[in-house]
Specification:
Layout: E1 5-10, H1 14-24, E2 30-36, H2 40-50, E3 54-56, H3 59-63, E4 70-73, H4 80-89, E5 93-96, H5 104-117, E6 121-123, H6 131-141, E7 148-158, H7 175-191, E8 197-204, E9 211-219, E10 224-230, E11 232-243, E12 247-250, E13 262-267, E14 278-282, H8 287-301, H9 309-328
Parallel strand pairs: 1-2, 1-4, 2-3, 4-5, 5-6, 7-10
Antiparallel strand pairs: 7-11, 8-9, 9-10, 11-12, 12-13, 13-14
Helix pairs in contact: 1-8, 4-5, 5-9, 7-9
């Protein structure tokens, strides 16, 4: 069997054609051999642009291709679970874009499908495999900043196009689902535990009705996370992790650049201005290349995936609780989950 895993891509979403496909083609363990679109011409254009052998005019045709071993699913949020299940039932491993689902119930259904079919399914939180996050979690585990007590995060961009999928309510668009899910995810990583209760505050766009400005508080057993995400604020992102002995600041925590090193700052508080912080740089890399290769390597060598699917169900439970909280104006508890 060839070392490289044969991948197929469902759709020609921007995330696929602008970031993931070019990155995975640079991998040592991955090769993309097929792409599908409901518009055959779009699939053929993408195939020609990226040198992909096969183009299909339907997702079902691609899933029926016996040469395709794994699927990358970058479809709109509301189609993540349905097409990931179809792929799994066709015997394909699945790397699905975040958020993994639009509800806890759907996420659990996907988890059970994985167990029933025996394929690998992973949520595409590519940040987990970037060296800067690997390094941050290693520093935390070694006690560099003491016990983690607080996480503060911000992730925003400005987009008002009503035709964009991220601004369509019935497609599960909005700030929390699109970028807030990252802040929930990394706070769970930093604390290495699940929040006991959450509080969500939403501001909806008056026409599109999606949440355009969302703040969340996650109450963990060991501390708290406070975050803001938005689809209509000046583009910015930052995460700070505060411990009893120091803090870590990630300069570009999510859209990690591929042309220069990522930087984090480790500060023991000796100078309140932060001038005493230690700068740590990480090698230039592409987190999407690493993500694809680790998934492919997991198929070939039977290794564990970096983002376990049961954790993705728990992440969705926190997101769902934040949505409930925004409606009830009170603290809400994620779960309980029956996995």
């Amino acid at each position: 069997m060839d070392k490289k895993v044969n991948w197929g891509v469902l759709g020609v979403a921007d995330i696929a054609v602008k970031r993931v496909i070019p990155a995975m083609q640079q991998g040592q363990w991955s090769q993309i051999i097929a792409i599908a679109s409901r518009d055959l011409k779009k699939a053929q254009q993408a195939a020609q642009e990226f040198g992909i052998k096969k183009a299909y005019g339907s997702y079902d045709e691609l899933l029926a291709d016996p040469d395709v071993e794994a699927i990358y699913n970058p479809l709109p949020n509301y189609l993540h679970v349905s097409w990931s299940i179809k792929a799994a039932e066709a015997g394909k491993h699945v790397l699905c874009e975040k958020p993994i689902s639009v509800s806890v119930e759907d996420a659990i259904t996907l988890l059970r499908t994985r167990d029933r079919t025996g394929v690998k399914i992973e949520e595409a939180f590519m940040v987990r495999v970037h060296p800067q996050w690997v390094g941050v979690l290693d520093l935390i585990s070694k006690g560099r900043i003491g016990a983690v007590r607080s996480v503060a995060g911000f992730f925003a961009y400005y987009l008002t196009d009503p035709q964009n999928v991220r601004n369509i309510l019935q497609y599960s668009g909005g700030a929390l689902m699109d970028v807030g899910c990252y802040l929930v995810y990394v706070s769970r990583l930093a604390f290495s535990e699940e929040p006991k209760r959450v509080l969500g505050l939403f501001e909806a766009d008056p026409e599109m009705k999606i949440d355009r400005l969302t703040c969340g508080i996650l109450d963990f057993p060991s501390g708290q996370c406070m975050f803001t995400c938005s689809t209509q604020i000046v583009p910015y992102q930052r995460v700070q992790i505060f411990g009893t002995k120091g803090r870590i600041e990630l300069e570009i925590p999510f859209n990690a650049p591929t042309e220069r090193p990522c930087r984090i700052f480790i500060d023991d508080g000796a100078d309140i201005s932060g001038r005493s912080a230690e700068l740590m740089e990480f090698e230039i890399c592409n987190q999407y290349t690493i993500q694809g290769d680790l998934f492919s390597k997991s198929i070939r060598q039977g290794t564990e995936l970096p983002v376990p699917l049961d954790g993705s169900v728990k992440n969705m439970a926190v997101i769902e609780a934040l949505f409930r909280s925004a409606k009830t104006n009170r603290w809400e508890t994620p779960g309980p989950l029956v996995l």
